[in-house]
Amino acid sequence: MKRKWWHTKAAYQIYPKSFADSNGDGIGDLQGIIGKLDYLKELGIDLIWISPIYQSPFVDQGYDISDYYALDPAFGTMEDMEELLGEAKKRDMGIIMDLVVNHCSDKHEWFQKALKDPFGKYGKYFYFMEGKDGMPPCNWRSYFGGSVWEKLPGYDNLFYLHMFAKEQPDLNWENPELREEIYRMIRWWLEKGVAGFRLDAIINIKKDLRFMDFPADREDGMCAGTMMLKHAKGVHTFLQEMKEKAFAPYGAFTIGELFDFRQDEMERYIGEEGCFESIFDFAPHLIGGSGKGWYDRREVGADDYRNAVFGSKAVSQEIGLMANIIENHDEPRGVSHFLPQGHVSETSKKMLGGLMLMAVGLPFLYQGQEIGMTNQTFTDIHQVDDISTKDEYQVALDHGLSREEALWAVASMSRDNARTPMQWSSEPHAGFTTGTPWMRENLNYREINVAEQETRADSVLAFYREMIRLRKSEEYGEAIVYGRQIPWKAEEKELMAFYRKGEEKTLLVLANYREEERKLRIEGKIRKVIADNTVPTDQWGSYTLQEDTITMKGYQFLVLEVGPMVAGV
Questions:
Q1: Who's near 287: CB < 8 A, 6+ residues apart?
Q2: Burial environment of residue 154 by CB neighbours within 10 A (0 to 12, 13 to 18, 19 or more)
Q3: Which one of 72, 74, 112, 117 is most buried, by most CB atoms within 10 A?
Q4: Co-location of 278 and 422 in the same domain
């Protein structure tokens, strides 16, 4: 693997609407982010991805962009953005924008012009097709439910394509004029000084142009939109063109959101000549999924999580660094999703975070993860804002679940879980705002918040800070960033253990992924304990284990420096 400047960094995602509100209007903003840059710097963050802040009607919380060159007034002004870029640069931090170019808002100028003249220039910026006697052209289902086709106002048999909400028409990447518009916009932002982009739903830009029906997978007679992606050919051509014309001249950092790609094509995405610098590792998040809907998901077990991570790393570490996540703005809180109910504690939260930070890959934290924020509690569907959750709730009802059962089934997966206000303190509304927050804060903010955790060396926040420092340390950084990840005792239940073998150091990572104690016999010499989630961080590295058999407490996480004469390593 060719070594790159960003490999040693740590990244952090901000959901701006819920991060920090500077003016008391209940919505997070750019000045709020500026005010927290020192906090992020102390945490060890180098790259900050900000979810969309462009002008938007907010049908899908900013992922429906009505003007790529303008900021939504809710977040601030372009002067605020320029100040943020400048302040980040002073701290040697880079700002990554969200690039949403599979679709735009139906309020975008392009679509509004296309509606007026569907067969003119701007009609070719979208997918307009005639239906089958007034019915949709094909039976693909939108990611948010219902057909991907919507009738154009004023036409009985003319439809436009939207893989997401009907207010998010898909852009026609087959049109070179449209592509040049997008590249021009990307270069404009890079000229302003952004460090790069996270590319939203980017694999969807290439469609199966046959627009044919596929076998139905639900009672509605439709098939998942992901079925189309299995037959779409040529996305790499678009991605390489975008790289050459927009990203490469500026040395931009790019990270793709790819759920539906073939692992044998990973090198085309993140290899030396790949389309992106990195992609997110969603392998653990795909566990337990069902084509029927969220109501049919199964819980994630410890061995499921381990096997997903090991399987993904076995492929990726030969090619490049994927980004490790346990949560983001589209996923539930990791500690509520990957830890068993009733076992969520500061100890188990640290264990999960430690595994993410020690696995090979770029660590990509999501706001609040570093203090162990948990899922929200929903008592009524009317408390839900997320368009996707509302659709899944209706799917559950349609399959015979009661309202209570349907709410319980979708609540744990709702995207709103990760969108509650950041918990800064025990002050009203978690210190997020002096006004009324746009979304109800999680009521456990009095117990889980930054201010309280900053006072303790045994807090989740202290653990994350020290683990990121360890990753950047001169002594262990090479092994953690570039060392081979080699599974150990992968057949043992509820244990996740692996080596990170560097050029000079070999580390053994151990996680007792259960409540009960367990004994482990370590092969070879234990030189030092360099991380332990059961003791305060200021005690790390101060003791060694003399015995070759250790007793691990429930959910204990250890990083050991071991001798080089370990069998098979």
A1: 300, 304, 305, 308
A2: exposed
A3: 72
A4: yes
Strand partners, 11: 47, 364
DSSP letters spanning 419-440:
-SPP---SSGGGGS-SS--SSP
The answer to whether 569 touches 501, Cβ cutoff 8 Å, is yes
Catalytic residue among 60, 64, 72, 257: 257
* Residues 60 and 130 grouped into a single domain: no
Catalytic, 257? Answer yes
Parent domain of 370: 8-103+176-460
Q: Is 28 exposed, middle or buried (0-12, 13-18, 19+ CB in 10 A)?
A: buried
Q: Are 256 and 391 contained in the same domain?
A: yes
Residues 86 and 217 occupy one common structural domain? yes
Question: One of 98, 106, 200, 532 is an active-site residue; which one?
Answer: 200
Task: For residue 491, give the 3-state DSSP assignment.
Answer: coil
252 and 355 inside one domain: yes
Question: Any catalytic annotation for residue 200?
Answer: yes
| Whether 157 and 246 share a structural domain | no
pLDDT mean values, one per 10 residues, the chain (569 residues) = 94 98 98 98 98 97 98 98 98 98 98 98 98 96 96 96 98 98 98 98 97 95 94 96 98 94 90 96 94 93 98 95 97 97 97 98 98 96 94 95 95 96 98 98 97 98 98 98 97 98 96 97 89 95 79 97 72
Residue 507 burial (CB count, 10 A)? 23
Do 347 and 246 reside in the same domain of the chain? yes
CATH number at residue 535: 2.60.40.1180
